[in-house]
Design brief:
It is built from 3 helices and 2 strands; from the N terminus they run H-E-E-H-H. By secondary structure, the chain is mostly helical. The radius of gyration is 15 Å and the shape is globular.
Length: about 100
């Protein structure tokens, strides 16, 4: 294994550990407020997206449902919550799963 692939493996294990710690601590989605029943349904979300200058550190991450994180994409949380509110209470559109 070369240095680059070892570094990538290390980064991946750190991300998984971070996700586990956040899930165990709260088990609540920071975006929709509902309980995340299973670890496999959780995802780490950057509060300020990396694509918009956010940092990859503890103060800029939160635990979310995998599907909430996919729907949020690179929106800030306030914009996502507003659009989610409109969807949930005004338009009553069923969320669809995003496949990547």
């Amino acid at each position: 294994m070369d240095d680059r692939s070892e570094h990538e493996e290390f980064k991946k294990s750190c991300r998984l550990n971070r996700r586990w710690q956040l899930w165990v601590k709260t088990k609540t989605c920071a975006l929709c407020g509902e309980v995340i029943e299973a670890y496999k349904d959780s995802s780490v979300d950057h509060i300020v997206p990396l694509s918009k200058g956010g940092k990859d550190n503890w103060s800029n991450i939160q635990i979310t449902h995998r599907h909430c994180n996919q729907l949020k994409d690179n929106l800030n949380p306030l914009t996502f919550r507003f659009l989610n509110f409109l969807n949930k209470y005004l338009f009553k559109i069923k969320p669809r799963k995003i496949n990547k």
